Amino acid sequence: MFRRREPVPFAFLAEADRFRSNVAPPPRQRASIGEMAGRWLLGLTIVAGLVGALIIAMPAMSIPSSTPTQQSQASQGH
Q1: So what's the pLDDT on residue 44?
Q2: 31: left (phi over 0), alpha (psi -120 to 50) or beta
Q3: Model pTM?
Q4: CA gap 50, 58 in Å, rounded
């Protein structure tokens, strides 16, 4: 059940995994309404920026199929 550990030069390091504290950490403070609103606003701003960048970039990423492809005169051998 318990494995034997190799000797450690400092005894407190060997005992550290068996130590149990009886002191509970303090409870977390709830975020105020202003902090929560700020987090929501920041998140919405980031999402809106990403969506806006996609919308603006869509025309540049699409290939126009209605216009005929132009070939240069050099490719035609002239």
Answers
A1: 98
A2: beta
A3: 0.48
A4: 12
How is residue 32 written in tokens? Answer: 């105020």
pLDDT tens by residue, 10-66 = 666 556 556 666 788 888 899 999 999 999 999 999 999 999 999 999 888 887 776
Give the pLDDT confidence score for residue 47 in this predicted structure: 98
3-state secondary structure of 7: coil
Determine the Cα–Cα distance for residues 31 and 36; give it in Å rounded to an integer.
6
As given in the structure block, the two tokens for residue 3 are 């494995």
Tokens encoding 76? 């035609």
Q: Quick check: helix, strand or coil at residue 76?
A: helix
Token digits of residue 26: 């303090």
How many Å is the maximal CA-CA distance in the chain?
89
